[in-house]
Amino acid sequence: MSPAADARCAELRNLMADTRAMLARDSAAVRHLQNQLDDLTSQPDPDPAAIAELRAELGDANQKVADDQQQLADQQDDFESLCSGSAGP
C-alpha cells in the first residue's frame, strides 16, 4: 500500500476511535436522561412540563446516538473499501 493510502487508513482508524468514544458518551447521556425520566415519572405527582422537557432532551440525545452510529458505519465502510489488506480498526 502506498504511504498516502497508509496515512488515510491511519486517519480512518483515528476517526473511528473518536466516533466510538463519542458514541459511548452519547449513549451514556441517553441512559442518564432515561433514568431521570423514569425517576420523575415514578413520583406520585410528576411535573408534566419537566416530563415534556426530559422527553425532548431524550429525543435529541437518541438522535445524536443514531447519527453517531451512522457516522461510524460510514467510516467502517470507507475503511473496508480503502484499506482492505491492512490491519483492522
Description:
Helix 1 runs antiparallel to helix 2 (48-83). The protein is mainly alpha-helical. The protein is built from two helices and no strands. The chain is rod-shaped.
Mean pLDDT, as a whole number? 93
Q: Roughly what percent helix?
A: over 70%
Strand portion: under 5%
Shape: rod-shaped
Query: Structural class of the helices, strands and pairings?
Result: mainly alpha
Instruction: Determine Rg (CA atoms, Å).
Output: 19 Å
Q: What's the order of the H and E elements?
A: HH
In short:
The protein is mainly α.
Strand and helix layout:
Blueprint: H1 3-41, H2 48-83
Helix pairs in contact: 1-2
Which properties best describe this structure?
89 residues; mainly alpha; 2 helices; 84% helix; rod-shaped
